[in-house]
Amino acid sequence: MSELNNIALKILEKGKGVLAADESTATMTKRLDSVNVQSTPQNRLLFRETLFSASSMTDCIGGVILFDETIKQISSKKNKIPELISKMGSIPGIKVDTGAKVLASSPDEKITEGLDGLRERLSEYYKLGAKFTKWRGVYSISKEYPSKLSIQANAHALARYSALVQECNMVPIVEPEVLMDGEHSANECYQKTSEVIKKCFEELILHKIDLSGIILKPNMILPGNKSKDKISNEEVAKLTLKCLESSVPSEVPGVAFLSGGQSEIEATENLNLINKYNNTKFIMSYSYGRALQQSALKFWGQNIQNLDGTQKIFNHRAKMNTLAAQGKWSKDLEV
Ligand code: 13P
Question: N or C: which end of the chain has fewer CB within 10 A?
Answer without folding.
Answer: C
